[in-house]
Amino acid sequence: MAKPATPNRSSARVVQLRKGANLEMVRLTCPDSAQALKIAESFGTALVDSDGIRDLHERLIVETADSLAEGLGERAMQIHLQRIVGAFVGSAHGAGQFYSRAVTEARDATAKASNDARDEDLDGPVGYDGAAQRKREFAADMGIQAHSLRMAAEGAVAAYEQVVGETWKPFDRPVENPGANLDRKAAEAQMAALG
């Protein structure tokens, strides 16, 4: 005997979202102005004009919006600026993550080099830097780059708020059922192999 139909249940569909980087994530991974200044002083690198970078990027986005104002409606402008600002924030976040990994590698190499019993981590021949020093210098360069991109992102976010009148938030993209697509593709490949 057949089972009676179950009462209608609304089939709630869970949509996974791919989270975009936000300004807080950038601030957590990229050096601030004080840390960038310490890096520049400690490693003898050029000082970057943090406020100048931020202001320039804010003006850039505002002027871009002004030039597009006649051709774009309010919603189209918001979408366009959402994407542009998202690119600046995403770039800064990626640089911040890369900087964090470089710092970790520099710390590890420096800790290994401080152990006198390890010959493989000793400095190179006279006139050449050791591996630990090169990793520290690389991390310093990445820190300055990440800081510069952070300032650009902060300027872009400030411009978005100025033009659109709302605080910028990352666009969270829905993930389109990645498992089902992969399973279907695998099944097709298997069936093709069977002939």
From TrEMBL:
Origin superkingdom: Bacteria
Name the UniProt record assigns to this protein: ArgG
Organism of this sequence: Metarhizobium album
